[in-house]
């Protein structure tokens, strides 16, 4: 959501150029909305947790990248489709840029929002990603309310837009609508729930075990214990001052020290009594178990999140798990994201986007690109024909074709 209006131009085919305005502040018809979480700040809590747990954040990043793919392939029957893929809105963003931000929001928050902008004549079409943390569903379930800071909501600073398939005319003359993507969860009607919801606790455990290790480093691995101080203290205030001075010099967390001040004797019997605990293995096991549970909660795979590289790089395992992820998670998510976009392209701009598909590539290759197709099929135990012209192509040529299809 922009505070200032920015004019730009988007052309579809030979249609007349039309001015495009990014979202500007308008009057909110109603400030009633469905709370996202008990305090309406669920997106902030989920975002904060993702910034603190390294494994949790890595899975979200990788999962969204795989779903966004490496670009798009499409037929060349309608050149307007190629133009739209390369230039999806007035900010100059490509369709992949918009899609990658949408997939990240959906993976992180279980919800994502895309703003659709056009006019009565359908002379232009633009798609804008809207930060899901700034959007709430209105009470009528037909609109969404956008605000830059829901911690201090002000109705006059908010913008109300209709939910797709409804379009409403704005003050700048454009027609706008918002697509709401959400992960289905029983008992949750207005907002989706991220798939890793069952792993929130273990994400917190992984974060706390990391904090514990950092504290040990900061404290130079000092032991916990009791410090007996023989010193003279005329009153309680002097005793507290002695303890505070000793704490600044010796105390740590972990490595916590209890200070006991007693009246000094002729001989100074001050001593430190360590309290040892052999729980290193318990902490390591707890961290490893939390990491494994996070991967399971995300419905994801260890090798696709870089968790098994320390034990050896297995290209075969990575390719196998990528194939499983492709057929169980990635393709289904891509279809869900592209389906309404294809419908909008056809209904609003008259562009047949049925051939529009996301290009998926595995993170590693099992065969060198200088092999021919028939050689690769032979290596995989498939039927092959050395004389078939189509199988004479090198794998590098196929890869090159995919690269040139990316827009």
Summary keywords:
alpha+beta, 407 residues, three-stranded antiparallel beta sheet, 38% helix, disordered C terminus, four-stranded antiparallel beta sheet
Characterization of the model:
Helix 1 packs across helix 2 (54-68), helix 2 (54-68) runs antiparallel to helix 4 (95-109) and helix 2 (54-68) packs across helix 8. By secondary structure, this protein is α+β, with helices and mostly antiparallel strands. The chain is flat. The protein folds into three domains: 7-196, no CATH class; 202-297, no CATH class; 367-407, no CATH class. Residues 1-30 and 400-407 have low confidence and may be disordered. The chain has helices at 42-52, 54-68, 79-86, 95-109, 200-218, 236-250, 280-297, 315-349, 373-379, 395-404, and strands spanning 7-10, 18-21, 72-73, 111-118, 126-130, 135-137, 143-146, 159-162, 168-169, 175-182, 224-231, 257-263, 271-275, 357-358.
N-C termini distance: 25 Å
Helix content: 25-40%
* Low-pLDDT ranges: 1-30, 400-407
pLDDT average, as an integer? 79
Work out the count of structural domains: 3
How many individual helices? 10
How many strands?
14
Overall radius of gyration = 29 Å
Q: What characterizes the major β-sheet?
A: 4 strands, antiparallel
Anisotropy-based shape = flat
Strand content is: 15-25%
């Amino acid at each position: 959501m922009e505070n200032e209006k920015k004019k730009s131009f988007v052309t579809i085919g030979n249609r007349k150029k039309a001015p495009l305005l990014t979202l500007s502040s308008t009057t909110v018809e109603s400030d009633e909305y469905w709370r996202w979480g008990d305090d309406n700040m669920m997106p902030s809590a989920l975002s904060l947790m993702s910034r603190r747990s390294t494994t949790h954040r890595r899975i979200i990043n990788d999962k969204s990248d795989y779903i966004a793919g490496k670009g798009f392939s499409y037929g060349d029957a309608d050149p307007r489709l190629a133009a739209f893929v390369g230039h999806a809105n007035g900010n100059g963003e490509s369709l992949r840029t918009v899609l990658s931000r949408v997939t990240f929001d959906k993976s992180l928050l279980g919800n994502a929002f895309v703003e659709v902008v056009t006019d009565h004549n359908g002379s232009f079409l633009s798609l804008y990603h809207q930060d899901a943390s700034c959007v709430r569903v209105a009470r009528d379930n037909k609109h969404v309310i956008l605000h830059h800071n829901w911690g201090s909501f002000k109705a006059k600073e908010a913008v109300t837009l209709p939910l797709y398939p409804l379009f409403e005319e704005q003050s700048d003359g454009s027609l706008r609508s918002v697509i709401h993507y959400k992960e289905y969860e029983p008992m949750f009607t207005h907002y989706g729930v991220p798939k890793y919801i069952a792993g929130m606790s273990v994400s917190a455990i992984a974060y706390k075990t990391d904090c514990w290790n950092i504290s040990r480093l900061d404290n130079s691995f000092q032991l916990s214990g009791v410090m007996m101080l023989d010193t003279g203290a005329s009153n309680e205030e002097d005793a507290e001052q002695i303890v505070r001075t000793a704490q600044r010099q010796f105390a740590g967390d972990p490595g916590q020290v209890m200070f006991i001040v007693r009246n000094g004797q002729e001989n100074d019997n001050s001593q430190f009594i360590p309290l040892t605990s052999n729980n290193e293995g318990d902490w390591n096991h707890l961290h490893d178990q939390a990491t494994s549970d996070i991967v399971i909660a995300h419905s994801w795979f260890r090798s696709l999140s870089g968790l098994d590289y320390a034990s050896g790089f297995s290209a075969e395992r990575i390719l196998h798990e990528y194939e499983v992820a492709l057929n169980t998670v990635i393709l289904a998510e891509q279809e869900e994201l592209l389906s309404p976009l294809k419908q909008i392209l056809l209904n609003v701009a008259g562009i047949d986007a049925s051939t529009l598909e996301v290009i998926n590539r595995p993170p590693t290759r099992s065969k060198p690109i200088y092999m021919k197709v028939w050689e690769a099929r032979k290596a995989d135990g498939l039927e092959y024909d050395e004389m078939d012209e189509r199988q004479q192509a090198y794998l590098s040529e196929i890869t090159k074709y995919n690269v040139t299809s990316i827009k």
